[in-house]
């Protein structure tokens, strides 16, 4: 035993194994026989899946830590502690209560979201699983599964962990699985049982298996697995069999077309490949929130400066005799002995507390409420509801609403996201004659198909023979499996054989071809014992022996089969891409077929060419020897097989070509076109092969006819080095970029060259791979430079983690663009979590993507409205909210700063405590909250019709320093007007009508009254979309302030220790000059902003302002009965009414009559808002944009 263990160690050390670290699994937990290998027990994790962030024990500390990372929360915590420790001008309640409210609301919201994740995890972990124990089938929960357990899985069940396939109910030891939730592909894939165990069909036989498995440690690559199984017999040496990815059944995949399988668990829980491709769900923060934090730091600096200035000036003031100790306020002995520096520090903290309202804690409360309530506008939108699935949009986190209006890159999956993954046979071309199945053209020749021959007019003679060979080739050259319809009895199967079978394959193209040929008269029946059976047009069965299969690969881009007919003739049938077939053809009508292929490619159809050659017995014998030698090779097996295929697949006779349509999702092309017009770059990241993905990109208009395709693929790198390929591509795009720059400078007009880049997973791995000389960073920068100059990028053959790597690479580039990832399968979860915004499609591929995303939508087409309308509105609204909050707090606290110069820097508040507490909570919070929920500076229809408006708000345009400084200075100006206007008014009007004098609280109340009215009316002037709720909130807030002030000062409240505001407000209103002063100061404060906006709108209007003017002009001049011909200007035409058809069969456009022209609200609101779902009209009476909308064009 020691000898064998030593030999195993030597093998590993000598590099015979392909991994550094390995694990040994004992099948059924049975130890190896004595005298073979040493029994080394290993500990493995259980089968629990954890996608949640918090546990019951760490929720409070972890959530508090995350929340206090916010600058404002941490700042108010410090202020609250200062108010508790020292004697300050204001109560600790004024800071503590708002902070507690913010922390509690946020914690409840995040805790609820995590509880939903816990709930989903528990449903998955408690799913029942069947496994074998002591020769019997036992049922237990999935989370209790252990490495080494032998599991039974039935048809349509999902594999509970990563399994090595031991045996199946099928006699040939195969099973079929779909990996839709892993790589997004819903097609069937064939997996093979271990050769020595595939005959074990009962629980007792499987339980008697004595074997160990040696394999690599868990790694995330879905398509790679290296291992071997040692099967022990009674006395002989153990039999070792290699294990590859074809023997591995992955967690998340589903068993299809197989009654049951047995497998042994090798990776469980968070070590499964599916779990390793998940990334931890980190806290995402929007660009607006980051801007808020930066602005808060600026205001914090202003606050500290104010406190320092006042502290210094206070000590300068008190340095003069008798000012420090006035006769009415003598100091105590301890106060006289107090340290000067300690007193200065205490004064500094007191001033910090007095001025701390410049940092608006209520802004975070309002922002949280705005995001939470605003998310309902998305879920209420009826236009984003899909009737087919009965699903509407979902909001999993509302923290990123405004980020939807800042997207610069969209990374989308292909299968199930852009396409329906539903292939349909369109036509085939044989010897220059085109055949279209009657099912497709509904018994009629299409309008543009002049000269097309149908089945009944097919050619005769040699053409007839080639036609039959073509149909036989498509019936035989594939990997399709047949599943009989169990509801049809045996007698009817022969008669209904063309309709009673279900075809399944790893490639949906192959199924489409076999079904299409069935409609043209030839039916593939079955493959049994290496014999393929087909039914010809005369309903006669033909049997062919399958001799060899030359499998498809992405380098050759073709596949072949060698078959033997019942007459003894040996044929090699081959199908593949035109670029792969045409160079190997020696005869046939090449020109006619090539022109038809090119025409179909232009229309976005997926094309394949079909060829054949007849083999003699000697030629077949030589081919068989070549293939057998290559298959048995242990070193460079793939290379030797490729060389053998190259020798065999040549000198073909061309038969024809096929065209298959991969149906795009509805309006997918229109959505991508709109996103590109909005300045958003769209990348497609897919696990599919390059040809398939490229065809889809052409169909959805990501690549256009004039797009020059640049390839960065494994095939290209094999021909040249990676360094040379990258530099060649860089020279190509940069040379054209330089020439464009020169032409634009010289005034010459040139057509813009459109570049599209195609890269595969292997090439990306080489670019991302770190090198010893540190050159990988240069490769990445070069790759990014190429991508920046390409209008679209296609990444194919991508593993899930590679998708996330691409997103991260772009996200961390020097421009730091905002990214969005959208997908529908578990293979997309990594990039969804990596991107700034992750969107899941609620599709056929499971709910993993939707559950882990920030938002979920039913179809890809809904992304257009989500970004261009909802995202645009969300960003504009919250930008105005943030700027307005800083503005109104500058207006609020700057008079307090000026007041200190007139009260001896004594920290005397200008405003009453009630006003200090309620200013941000009650008097001014509700109007801006409603504005940030309902404002529409332009209509939703306009935003959809003019995608370029999205560029006006891109790159955080409304929260740049220029806009921030403008709002800050506007607040300072208004504060100066409030304070000194009231000061000079008091200077001349010192008594009321009854002879009483105005005091300091009356002065502060007058300033506060002007302040509340000015900031509220400023918001009213900025409002473009008025409803009764806006009127109620704005005028209601002003009325509430007046009523509260009357009650607060008109009643002696028994619970108050002091009543300094008694009768102050009524006394102020009893003075005529006070009324005049209030009106005059409000007018002077608002006038500069109004003048600035009017001048800018007339002299330097932005694109948004031009649209607003056009919309107003349109409403003024278009009646309900304006003829349709008058509205044919592109300005008034919606993309939805003129979108090009996604399919050839839908070529007739629908006509629509416009009978009413109004600005329709983009969202669906409940009836409580007072208007119906479809008649929310814009009735803005004042048409100019807020200053936050100023963007240079």
UniProtKB/TrEMBL annotation:
Write out the GO biological process terms: positive regulation of myotube differentiation
* Transmembrane stretches, start-end: 68-86, 294-313, 348-367, 914-934, 964-986, 998-1020, 1032-1056, 1062-1087
EC class name? translocase
Residue span(s) of domain P-type ATPase A: 126-190
According to its UniProt record, where is this protein located? Answer: Cell membrane; Early endosome; Endoplasmic reticulum membrane; Membrane
Q: Which cofactor does it need?
A: Mg(2+)
Reaction(s) catalysed by this chain, per the record, are: a 1,2-diacyl-sn-glycero-3-phospho-L-serine(out) + ATP + H2O = a 1,2-diacyl-sn-glycero-3-phospho-L-serine(in) + ADP + phosphate + H(+); ATP + H2O + phospholipidSide 1 = ADP + phosphate + phospholipidSide 2; a 1,2-diacyl-sn-glycero-3-phosphoethanolamine(out) + ATP + H2O = a 1,2-diacyl-sn-glycero-3-phosphoethanolamine(in) + ADP + phosphate + H(+)
Amino acids binding Mg(2+): 413, 415, 824, 828
Query: One GO molecular function term?
Result: phosphatidylethanolamine flippase activity
- The residue ranges of the P-type ATPase C-terminal domain are 850-1102
| Principal subcellular localization | membrane
Instruction: Please report the record's description of how this protein sits within the membrane.
Output: Multi-pass membrane protein
Q: Which GO terms describe its cellular component?
A: early endosome; endoplasmic reticulum membrane; Golgi apparatus; phospholipid-translocating ATPase complex; plasma membrane; recycling endosome
Q: Which family does it belong to?
A: Belongs to the cation transport ATPase (P-type) (TC 3.A.3) family. Type IV subfamily.
Q: Which NCBIfam families match?
A: ATPase-Plipid, ATPase_P-type
Q: How does it assemble?
A: Component of a P4-ATPase flippase complex which consists of a catalytic alpha subunit ATP11A and an accessory beta subunit TMEM30A.
Q: Which PANTHER family match?
A: PHOSPHOLIPID-TRANSPORTING ATPASE IH, PROBABLE PHOSPHOLIPID-TRANSPORTING ATPASE
Under what name is this protein listed? Phospholipid-transporting ATPase
Q: Which organism is this protein's natural source?
A: Anser brachyrhynchus (Pink-footed goose)
């Amino acid at each position: 035993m020691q000898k064998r263990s030593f030999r195993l160690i030597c093998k590993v050390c000598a590099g015979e194994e392909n991994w550094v670290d390995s694990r040994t699994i004992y099948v059924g937990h049975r130890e190896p026989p004595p005298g073979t290998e040493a029994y080394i027990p290993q500990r493995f994790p259980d089968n629990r899946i954890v996608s949640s962030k918090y546990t019951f024990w760490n929720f409070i500390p972890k959530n508090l830590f995350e929340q206090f990372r916010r600058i404002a929360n941490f700042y108010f915590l410090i202020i609250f502690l200062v108010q508790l420790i020292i004697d300050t001008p204001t109560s600790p309640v004024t800071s503590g209560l708002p902070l507690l409210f913010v922390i509690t609301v946020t914690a409840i919201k995040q805790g609820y979201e995590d509880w939903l994740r816990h709930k989903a995890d528990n449903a998955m972990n408690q799913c029942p699983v069947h496994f074998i124990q002591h020769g019997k089938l036992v049922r237990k929960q999935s989370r209790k599964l252990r490495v080494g357990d032998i599991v039974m899985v039935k048809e349509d069940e999902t594999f509970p962990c990563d399994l090595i396939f031991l045996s199946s109910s099928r006699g040939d030891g195969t099973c079929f699985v779909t990996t839709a939730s892993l790589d997004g592909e819903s097609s069937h894939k064939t997996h093979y049982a271990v050769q020595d165990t595939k005959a074990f069909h009962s629980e007792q036989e499987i339980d008697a298996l004595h074997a160990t498995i040696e394999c690599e440690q868990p790694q995330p690559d879905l398509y790679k697995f290296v291992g071997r199984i040692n099967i022990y017999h009674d006395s002989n040496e153990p039999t070792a069999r290699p294990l590859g990815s074809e023997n591995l059944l992955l967690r998340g995949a589903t068993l299809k077309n197989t009654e049951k399988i047995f497998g042994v668990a090798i990776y469980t829980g968070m070590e499964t490949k599916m779990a390793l491709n998940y990334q931890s769900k980190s806290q995402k923060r929007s660009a607006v929130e980051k801007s808020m934090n930066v602005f808060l730091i600026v205001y914090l600096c202003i606050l500290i400066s104010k406190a320092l200035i006042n502290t210094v000036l206070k000590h300068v003031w008190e340095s003069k005799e008798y000012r420090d100790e006035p006769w009415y306020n003598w100091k105590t002995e301890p106060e006289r002995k107090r340290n000067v520096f300690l007193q200065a520090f205490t004064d500094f903290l007191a001033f910090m507390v007095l001025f701390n309202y410049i940092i608006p804690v209520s802004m975070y409360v309002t922002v949280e409420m705005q995001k939470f309530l605003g998310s309902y506008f998305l879920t209420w939108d009826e236009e984003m509801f899909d009737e087919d699935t009965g699903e509407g949009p979902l909001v999993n986190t509302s923290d990123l609403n405004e980020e939807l209006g800042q997207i610069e890159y969209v990374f989308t999956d292909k299968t199930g996201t852009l396409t329906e993954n539903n292939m349909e046979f369109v036509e085939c071309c044989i010897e220059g004659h085109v055949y279209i199945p009657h099912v497709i053209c509904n018994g009629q020749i299409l309008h543009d198909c002049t000269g097309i021959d149908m089945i009944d007019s097919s050619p005769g003679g040699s053409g007839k023979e080639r036609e039959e060979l073509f149909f036989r080739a498509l019936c035989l050259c594939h990997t399709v499996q047949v599943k009989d319809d169990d509801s049809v009895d045996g007698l009817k199967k022969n008669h209904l054989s063309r309709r009673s079978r279900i075809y399944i394959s790893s490639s949906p193209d192959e199924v489409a071809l076999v079904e299409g040929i069935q409609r043209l008269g030839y039916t593939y029946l079955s493959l049994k014992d290496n014999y393929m059976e087909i039914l010809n047009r005369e309903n006669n069965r033909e049997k062919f022996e399958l001799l060899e299969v030359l499998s498809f690969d992405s380098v050759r881009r073709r596949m072949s089969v060698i078959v033997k007919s019942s007459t003894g003739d040996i044929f090699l049938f081959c199908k593949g891409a035109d670029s792969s077939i045409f160079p190997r053809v020696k005869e046939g009508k090449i020109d006619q077929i090539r022109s038809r292929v090119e025409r179909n490619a232009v229309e976005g159809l997926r094309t394949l060419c079909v060829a054949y050659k007849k083999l003699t017995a000697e030629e077949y014998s030589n081919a068989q020897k070549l293939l057998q030698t290559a298959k048995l090779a242990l070193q460079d097996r793939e290379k030797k097989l490729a060389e053998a295929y190259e020798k065999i697949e040549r000198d073909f006779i061309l038969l024809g070509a096929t065209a298959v349509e991969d149906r795009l999702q509805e309006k997918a092309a229109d959505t991508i076109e709109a996103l590109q017009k909005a300045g958003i770059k769209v990348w497609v990241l897919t696990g599919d092969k390059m040809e398939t993905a490229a065809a889809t990109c052409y169909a959805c208009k990501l690549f256009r006819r004039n797009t020059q395709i640049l390839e960065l693929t494994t095939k290209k790198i094999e021909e040249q080095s990676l360094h040379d390929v990258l530099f060649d591509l860089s020279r190509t795009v940069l040379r054209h970029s330089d020439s464009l720059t020169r032409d634009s400078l010289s005034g010459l007009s040139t057509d813009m060259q459109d570049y599209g880049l195609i890269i595969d997973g292997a090439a990306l791995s080489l670019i991302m791979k770190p090198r010893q000389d540190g050159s990988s960073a240069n490769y990445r920068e070069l790759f990014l430079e190429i991508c920046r100059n390409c209008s679209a990028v296609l990444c194919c053959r991508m593993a899930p983690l590679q998708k996330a790597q691409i997103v991260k690479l772009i996200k961390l580039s020097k421009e730091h663009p905002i990214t969005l990832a959208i997908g529908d399968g578990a293979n997309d979860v990594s990039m969804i979590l990596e991107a700034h915004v992750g969107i899941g499609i609620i599709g056929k591929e499971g709910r993993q993507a939707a559950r882990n995303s920030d938002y979920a939508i039913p179809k890809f087409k809904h992304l257009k409205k989500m970004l261009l309308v909802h995202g645009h509105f969300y960003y504009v609204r919250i930008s105005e909210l943030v700027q307005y909050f800083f503005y109104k707090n500058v207006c609020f606290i700057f008079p307090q700063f000026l007041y200190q110069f007139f009260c001896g820097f004594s920290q005397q508040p200008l405003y009453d405590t009630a006003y200090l507490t309620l200013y941000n909570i009650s008097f001014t919070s509700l109007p801006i909250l409603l504005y940030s929920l309902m404002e529409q500076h332009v209509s939703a229809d306009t935003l959809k019709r003019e995608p370029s408006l999205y560029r006006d708000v891109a790159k955080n345009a409304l929260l740049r320093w220029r806009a921030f400084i403008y709002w800050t200075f506007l607040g300072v100006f208004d504060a100066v007007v409030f304070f000194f206007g009231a000061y000079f008014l008091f200077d001349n009007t010192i008594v009321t009508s009854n002879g009483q004098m105005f005091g300091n609280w009356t002065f502060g109340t007058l300033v506060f009254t002007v302040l509340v009215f000015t900031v509220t009316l400023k918001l009213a002037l900025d409002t473009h979309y008025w409803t009764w709720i806006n009127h109620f909130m704005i005028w209601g807030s002003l009325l509430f302030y007046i009523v509260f002030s009357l009650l607060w000062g008109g009643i002696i409240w028994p619970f108050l220790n002091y009543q300094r505001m008694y009768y102050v407000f009524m006394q102020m209103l009893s003075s005529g000059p006070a009324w005049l002063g209030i009106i005059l100061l409000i007018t002077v404060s608002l006038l500069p902003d109004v003048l600035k906006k009017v001048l800018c709108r007339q002299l330097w209007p932005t694109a948004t302002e031009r649209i607003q003017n056009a919309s107003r002009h349109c409403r003024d001049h278009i009646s309900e009965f304006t003829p349709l011909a008058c509205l044919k200007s592109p300005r008034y035409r919606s993309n939805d009414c003129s979108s090009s058809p996604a399919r050839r069969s839908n070529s007739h456009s629908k006509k629509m009559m416009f009978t009413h022209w109004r600005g329709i609200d983009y969202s669906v609101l409940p009836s409580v808002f007072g208007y119906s779902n479809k008649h929310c009209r814009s009735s803005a009476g004042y048409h100019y944009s807020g200053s936050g909308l100023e963007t240079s064009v």
